Structures are given as structure tokens and as C-alpha cells.
Amino acid sequence: MAQTWGNFLFSLLDYKTEKFVIAKNKKVGVLFRLFQLGVIGYLIGWVFLWKKGYQETEEVIQSSVITKLKGVDFTNSSQSGLQLWGAEDYVIPPQGDRVFFIVTNYVVTPNQKLALKGLHFIVVYSGVKTSRCINDTGTCEIHAWCPVEHGQTPLEPMLAKAENFTIYVKNFIKFPKFAFSKSNVLPTTNSTYLKMCRYDKDHHPYCPIFLVGDVINWTGYSFQDLATKGGSIGVGIEWNCDLDKDESQCNPEYSFTRLDSSKNSQNSAISGYNFRFARYYNDAAGQTYRNLFKVYGIRFDILVNGKAGRFSIIPTVISIGSGLALMGAGVFVCDMILLYMMSKSSFYRETKFEEQGQQERSKEIKDEAVESGQAEDARRGPGERGHGRATVVQHSVVSSDGRLADELRSLAFGCYRGHAVMLKTR
Q1: Binding site annotation covers 307?
Q2: Which GO terms describe its biological process (predicted)?
Q3: Domain co-membership, 120 together with 205
């Protein structure tokens, strides 16, 4: 028992290695080399060059957006008369944020005041019912702002010049993992550049000033499509920064899309954007009045996304390891083809795999050859030992499938203490 445990413990210190068989098969060899080239091409081209698998990445971006609009328009309507619209009038909210609204069309109900009014039941939503009804006229009395809203939406946008308004977008981003920060307003030695430039994908791709009309056109719609009934536009700012390169190579890319609708649902209920707000004032007698505006316009959402990467040894090792694993898969596939799908597969299997019974029989034959040599030496005497004729040992060994075992063929010639030992097999 002690010896058994000792053998087991010593066996733990054994080192085992694989036996390699070189198969002279051109078809499988070419297939294996092509597979290796494919894996190497995938690893270098796709993993390292395209996907930058050697980099540690971060997609959690800290971002701040500040917007500023400029432009003036003039309107003249029967309800509100002449009115000059500046950024403080048509931009909501006026302080500038990543989400803002530009008024392009409106309906105004001027000089409303609180009063009791008899109204038809279909407009009772304009106020609070007092529970008094007038049977003669079929109306109910409500406490409301009078006169109630009744205007029709203009068929053409009231602020037709809004398409020439400019939007100045300042975006500040930071990747905290790499302590890297930057702005979309790039440094320039030309002090008048920001006053004169307008964003253009081909000529001024990094200018942060956009024309409203151009932004809408880049979504595939026209200004008239959105200005009359309103809509929602998304302005995407994408930061893809390779921090192994110079900081000047990290620049934003802009994209534009309509968010509230599609071309196939232009007249659906989900299209358009409007809301109401009021402006209050008091007359000389202290009576409170208001002008009610139902405004249509374009909502802009500034959407910021980003990804940064920098070299790191850990993802590099992982990427290389995945490539080596694919190499192993190629070995497995080629082995299956060689051992089971070729015309000589049985020969390759016998060469690659050794059966324990054959190994033991080979050992017995070696031992018999040695014993035969020793007996010959004893018979010939001391003076003749080491000289003389070869010892011939005959064995008839046939493998289970009718063919001579390869192991025995390899024993066809041996040597024992200077004697030639011939092993004949038949």
C-alpha cells in the first residue's frame, strides 16, 4: 500500500507531452495553412486594426451642452398686430440647454380676462363650470378666461425667416477613466472664424454654428414640413477618440434626424409639436389680462455619445489568446478530416494512436532478443564473446486486422553487446 501511494505521489511530478505525427498529405496541409492565414488576417485586420482590440475603452462620457440662438423676424396678424420676434421671444427656454424650442407658427387670443360666461357645452374645457345653465340658449355658465380661444392655425408659418436663424452649440465632454476632456469649439488663430463660419460636412465639418433650415434639410425634410405644425429634431454629437494618437485627432461628428415622425406618417396624429403659454399684464384700473399663445415650432434635442480608447496590455493579451484558441480549432478540424474523412484514414489513425497491447508485445520481443544474446555468449565461451555470427530470433506476430504491427517492424534490427540481433517477422 505504501509503495502504491509513493508511486502515485511521484507520478504527479511526471511531465507529459504530446506525440506529433507529420502527415505527408498536401490537401490537409494546404487547408491548415489557409486556416492559419485566415486566423492571422482576422486577428490583425479585424481585431487589432478595425476594432482596436489592444485598447482599454470607456463609453461613460460626462457632457455639458450650452446653446445660443440668433436671428430676428417680424410678424403682422389681426389678433396681435405688428410684433418683432427676437431670440428672447421665440426660444423656449431662453437660457439655452441641450433641449430647446423655436417658435415658427402661432395662434394668439389677445386681451383675455377672468369672467363668468355662458358657453356651449363643447367648449366647457376652457373653464370651470358654476353649475348654472341657461335653458333658453342651451349653454352653461363657466368661470374662464374670455374670450375663449377660437383661432385657426395659419397654413403658412408666421416666422418664415426662422430657417435663417443660427444655432451655436457648445459641447464640453470628459472621459473620467483617462482624465481626458475637450470641447467641440476647436482652437483657431482666426478671431473672426466663429462669426463667419457655418457648419458644412465637406468644407467646415467642425464649425459649431448651424443654420436652422440646413439642419432640417439634412434630416430629409423641408422647413415648411416642420414649421407649420411643428416637429422634433435630434442633433447627434459623436465623439470617437483614439487616445494613442494626438489630441487634435479627437473631433466630433454631427448627425441629424427627425425624431417625432417618419415620411410615411406625415399626416398622423403623432406628427407635429405645439403647446400654450400666456403673457400677463394689468390695465390702468388694475384689471389682469393676458394674451394666450398657442405656438407651433421645432424642438431640438442635442444627443451626445462618445467612446475613448487607449493601449492596455490586458485586452491585448486577451485578443492574442482568442486568436491562439482559433488556431487550436483549426488543428481539431484538420485532425478530424485526416483521421476520419480521407481514404487512408485508418493508416493515419494507427500511426497516431498506440494501443497498449501492442506496446507490451513489443517489449516482450525486445526482452527475448536480449535473453537470446546472453545465451549465445554463454555457449561460445569467454574468448568468443562479442564476436561471431548474428543471433536470429524469429517471431510470427500478426496484428488483429491481419497486418504486421508497425511497432514490430521497427524492431527488425537491434544490437546487444556487439551482437547483431535480427528480428524476423512474417
Answers
A1: no
A2: calcium ion transmembrane transport; response to ATP
A3: yes
